[in-house]
Design brief:
This protein has 199 residues and is α+β, with helices and mostly antiparallel strands. It is 43% helix and 21% strand. The chain has a 5-stranded antiparallel β-sheet with strand order 1-2-3-4-5, covered by helices on one side. Strands 6-9 form a two-stranded antiparallel sheet.
Protein backbone atom coordinates (compact mmCIF):
# COMPACT_ATOMS: atom_id res chain seq x y z
CA UNK A 1 0.00 0.00 0.00
CA UNK A 2 1.60 3.27 -1.07
CA UNK A 3 1.55 6.53 0.85
CA UNK A 4 2.04 9.99 -0.58
CA UNK A 5 5.52 11.32 0.04
CA UNK A 6 6.26 14.94 0.82
CA UNK A 7 7.79 15.25 -2.64
CA UNK A 8 4.64 13.88 -4.27
CA UNK A 9 2.47 16.25 -2.24
CA UNK A 10 4.64 19.25 -3.16
CA UNK A 11 4.33 18.32 -6.82
CA UNK A 12 0.52 18.13 -6.43
CA UNK A 13 0.37 21.68 -5.03
CA UNK A 14 3.21 23.36 -6.93
CA UNK A 15 0.77 25.81 -8.60
CA UNK A 16 -1.51 26.34 -5.58
CA UNK A 17 -2.00 29.88 -4.34
CA UNK A 18 -3.21 31.01 -0.93
CA UNK A 19 -6.29 33.21 -0.60
CA UNK A 20 -7.04 34.50 2.90
CA UNK A 21 -10.75 35.06 3.46
CA UNK A 22 -10.46 35.61 7.19
CA UNK A 23 -7.53 36.20 9.54
CA UNK A 24 -8.73 37.28 12.96
CA UNK A 25 -6.65 35.72 15.73
CA UNK A 26 -7.52 32.02 15.86
CA UNK A 27 -10.43 32.58 13.47
CA UNK A 28 -9.08 31.91 9.99
CA UNK A 29 -10.39 30.81 6.61
CA UNK A 30 -7.73 29.97 4.04
CA UNK A 31 -8.19 28.60 0.52
CA UNK A 32 -5.40 26.86 -1.40
CA UNK A 33 -5.90 26.14 -5.08
CA UNK A 34 -4.43 26.32 -8.52
CA UNK A 35 -6.07 29.37 -10.19
CA UNK A 36 -6.49 27.39 -13.41
CA UNK A 37 -8.23 24.35 -11.89
CA UNK A 38 -9.91 22.96 -8.79
CA UNK A 39 -7.63 19.91 -8.79
CA UNK A 40 -6.68 19.05 -5.20
CA UNK A 41 -7.87 22.35 -3.81
CA UNK A 42 -8.36 22.58 -0.06
CA UNK A 43 -9.59 24.95 2.64
CA UNK A 44 -8.30 25.33 6.17
CA UNK A 45 -10.69 26.89 8.67
CA UNK A 46 -9.86 27.47 12.33
CA UNK A 47 -11.68 28.79 15.33
CA UNK A 48 -11.04 28.42 19.06
CA UNK A 49 -10.02 24.82 19.68
CA UNK A 50 -10.68 23.50 16.16
CA UNK A 51 -9.06 23.08 12.75
CA UNK A 52 -11.16 21.93 9.81
CA UNK A 53 -9.71 20.92 6.47
CA UNK A 54 -12.02 20.40 3.51
CA UNK A 55 -11.54 19.95 -0.22
CA UNK A 56 -11.13 17.46 -2.98
CA UNK A 57 -9.02 15.07 -0.89
CA UNK A 58 -11.56 14.85 1.94
CA UNK A 59 -12.67 16.60 5.10
CA UNK A 60 -11.50 16.28 8.69
CA UNK A 61 -12.12 18.10 11.97
CA UNK A 62 -9.37 18.22 14.61
CA UNK A 63 -9.60 19.56 18.14
CA UNK A 64 -7.12 19.86 20.98
CA UNK A 65 -5.89 23.36 21.86
CA UNK A 66 -6.96 26.97 21.52
CA UNK A 67 -4.87 27.75 18.40
CA UNK A 68 -4.70 24.56 16.38
CA UNK A 69 -1.97 26.00 14.15
CA UNK A 70 0.37 25.40 17.11
CA UNK A 71 -0.34 21.66 16.97
CA UNK A 72 0.41 21.34 13.25
CA UNK A 73 3.07 24.02 12.64
CA UNK A 74 6.24 22.47 11.17
CA UNK A 75 9.00 24.40 9.42
CA UNK A 76 10.40 21.23 7.80
CA UNK A 77 6.90 19.99 6.85
CA UNK A 78 7.19 16.88 9.02
CA UNK A 79 3.92 15.20 10.01
CA UNK A 80 2.73 13.08 12.96
CA UNK A 81 -0.25 11.19 11.49
CA UNK A 82 -1.05 8.79 14.34
CA UNK A 83 -0.84 11.43 17.07
CA UNK A 84 -2.92 13.84 15.01
CA UNK A 85 -5.40 11.09 14.18
CA UNK A 86 -6.22 10.84 17.88
CA UNK A 87 -7.37 14.49 17.72
CA UNK A 88 -9.95 13.87 14.98
CA UNK A 89 -13.50 14.62 16.03
CA UNK A 90 -16.06 12.07 14.91
CA UNK A 91 -19.44 10.56 15.63
CA UNK A 92 -17.88 7.50 17.28
CA UNK A 93 -14.51 5.98 18.13
CA UNK A 94 -14.92 3.46 15.30
CA UNK A 95 -15.70 6.21 12.79
CA UNK A 96 -12.72 8.26 13.98
CA UNK A 97 -10.24 5.45 13.31
CA UNK A 98 -11.91 4.58 9.99
CA UNK A 99 -11.40 8.20 8.89
CA UNK A 100 -7.61 7.86 8.95
CA UNK A 101 -6.75 4.15 9.16
CA UNK A 102 -7.51 1.29 6.79
CA UNK A 103 -6.87 -2.44 6.76
CA UNK A 104 -3.55 -3.19 5.02
CA UNK A 105 -3.84 -6.56 3.27
CA UNK A 106 -0.24 -6.37 2.04
CA UNK A 107 0.97 -6.01 5.63
CA UNK A 108 -1.18 -9.00 6.66
CA UNK A 109 0.25 -11.16 3.87
CA UNK A 110 3.84 -10.19 4.72
CA UNK A 111 3.31 -11.00 8.41
CA UNK A 112 1.61 -14.32 7.58
CA UNK A 113 4.56 -15.28 5.36
CA UNK A 114 7.01 -14.28 8.09
CA UNK A 115 5.13 -16.33 10.71
CA UNK A 116 5.24 -19.38 8.42
CA UNK A 117 8.96 -18.88 7.71
CA UNK A 118 9.63 -18.73 11.47
CA UNK A 119 7.58 -21.88 12.09
CA UNK A 120 9.47 -23.79 9.38
CA UNK A 121 12.81 -22.56 10.74
CA UNK A 122 11.91 -23.66 14.30
CA UNK A 123 10.39 -27.05 13.40
CA UNK A 124 11.77 -30.10 11.65
CA UNK A 125 9.60 -30.73 8.62
CA UNK A 126 10.27 -32.97 5.68
CA UNK A 127 10.79 -31.26 2.35
CA UNK A 128 7.43 -32.59 1.20
CA UNK A 129 5.62 -31.30 4.31
CA UNK A 130 7.29 -27.89 3.96
CA UNK A 131 6.26 -27.73 0.30
CA UNK A 132 2.66 -28.65 1.13
CA UNK A 133 2.55 -26.05 3.91
CA UNK A 134 3.95 -23.30 1.68
CA UNK A 135 1.59 -24.22 -1.14
CA UNK A 136 -1.41 -24.17 1.19
CA UNK A 137 -0.43 -20.71 2.46
CA UNK A 138 0.06 -19.49 -1.11
CA UNK A 139 -3.27 -20.82 -2.42
CA UNK A 140 -5.26 -19.85 0.66
CA UNK A 141 -3.98 -16.83 2.58
CA UNK A 142 -1.67 -15.17 0.06
CA UNK A 143 -4.21 -15.39 -2.76
CA UNK A 144 -6.90 -13.54 -0.77
CA UNK A 145 -7.98 -10.29 -2.42
CA UNK A 146 -9.88 -8.41 0.28
CA UNK A 147 -10.09 -7.95 4.04
CA UNK A 148 -12.95 -10.32 4.90
CA UNK A 149 -11.55 -13.07 2.69
CA UNK A 150 -8.08 -12.99 4.25
CA UNK A 151 -9.45 -12.78 7.79
CA UNK A 152 -11.57 -15.87 7.19
CA UNK A 153 -8.70 -17.79 5.60
CA UNK A 154 -6.21 -16.94 8.37
CA UNK A 155 -8.75 -17.74 11.08
CA UNK A 156 -9.44 -21.17 9.58
CA UNK A 157 -5.87 -22.02 8.54
CA UNK A 158 -4.17 -25.08 9.99
CA UNK A 159 -1.61 -27.48 8.56
CA UNK A 160 1.10 -29.68 10.14
CA UNK A 161 0.73 -27.99 13.50
CA UNK A 162 0.94 -24.46 12.10
CA UNK A 163 -1.91 -22.00 12.66
CA UNK A 164 -2.46 -18.30 13.24
CA UNK A 165 -3.96 -18.46 16.76
CA UNK A 166 -2.23 -15.26 17.98
CA UNK A 167 -2.07 -13.51 14.62
CA UNK A 168 -4.79 -10.92 15.30
CA UNK A 169 -3.07 -9.56 18.43
CA UNK A 170 -1.20 -7.17 16.10
CA UNK A 171 -2.69 -4.15 14.36
CA UNK A 172 -2.77 -4.49 10.58
CA UNK A 173 -4.02 -1.03 9.73
CA UNK A 174 -2.14 1.77 8.04
CA UNK A 175 -2.89 5.44 7.45
CA UNK A 176 -5.10 6.17 4.45
CA UNK A 177 -3.49 7.84 1.41
CA UNK A 178 -5.87 10.82 1.51
CA UNK A 179 -5.30 11.30 5.24
CA UNK A 180 -1.51 11.51 4.82
CA UNK A 181 -2.04 13.93 1.94
CA UNK A 182 -4.27 16.10 4.16
CA UNK A 183 -1.65 16.07 6.93
CA UNK A 184 0.90 17.42 4.47
CA UNK A 185 -1.66 19.96 3.26
CA UNK A 186 -2.16 21.27 6.80
CA UNK A 187 1.53 21.75 7.62
CA UNK A 188 2.28 23.18 4.17
CA UNK A 189 -0.73 25.50 4.32
CA UNK A 190 0.24 26.80 7.76
CA UNK A 191 3.80 27.40 6.58
CA UNK A 192 2.54 29.36 3.54
CA UNK A 193 0.24 31.38 5.80
CA UNK A 194 3.11 32.13 8.23
CA UNK A 195 5.42 33.17 5.38
CA UNK A 196 2.79 35.56 4.01
CA UNK A 197 2.16 37.11 7.44
CA UNK A 198 5.87 37.76 7.99
CA UNK A 199 6.05 40.00 4.92
Amino acid sequence: MTQPTLERFLDDVKHHELTIHQNNGVDRHLIFKNPATNDRHFNITTFKGYLIITGEMGSLVFSQQNDMFNLFRSDDLSIDPLYWGERIQSTSCEAKYASFLEFDIDKVKACAQKDLDNFIRDNELSEDDESVLRLKLETSVLSAEHEHEIIDRITNFGCYGFDFDEFWEKDYRTCRYNYIWLCYAIVWGIKKFDELNKE
